């Protein structure tokens, strides 16, 4: 009852009509196997879209590169201490005028340990960043957001802004196994939302959290540019000779994706006229 009331107050008819175009299988109670709920997702989009439009003034380019259906991996650079980049990418995907898609974001294992936050994130499409979860979603033809830098990217200090950290190879193995195209994304602006000058590692260890940044307790209204690149295909895990490719060759393919993201970041930095 309360959910329906909130939805009626915050979700416009136009927004609901747009999101309903998004292909998404849910059960009779409105949930899918990972806890995604249609109504809660609509409420979340309605609330965060105000920040997307008016606080971060997001400009998203290249949304037509996201496949209309079928499995795909949205691979982006990570920054900003909080997962604002994933949220903004997700809003861009749902509001895509070409073909809205339900984003499934892989999140750090830490988040579900925070009371209520885990269930809330599941309700809007986020899932623990586990290879098995990602594989099952690709099997179902989902569009999955992955940040291969992990906490190395989100927790880095301001003096390392826009410097890509080490990528894991896991997403590439999954892309090849499930013939999922990779859509590289360059995010510009989130680095400046919560600039951190240090990480208090002993306190982070004591609190069992990934990092404890020293930063102002404020999210700055940096303007955000999202550039979605052309799909990259790595269709199978064998090379042209039929031999299974080595981990070293997988790493080279990961470097191709990393290079594409670096180019999209540079495009966003060149487009940016001012930080705020």
UniProtKB/TrEMBL annotation:
Domain Phospholipid/glycerol acyltransferase, residue spans: 72-190
InterPro entries: Plipid/glycerol_acylTrfase (IPR002123)
GO cellular component: membrane
GO MF annotations, alphabetized: acyltransferase activity
SUPFAM superfamilies per UniProt: Glycerol-3-phosphate (1)-acyltransferase
PANTHER family: MONOACYLGLYCEROL_DIACYLGLYCEROL O-ACYLTRANSFERASE, TRANSMEMBRANE PROTEIN 68
Protein name as catalogued: Phospholipid/glycerol acyltransferase domain-containing protein
Organism: Litoribrevibacter albus
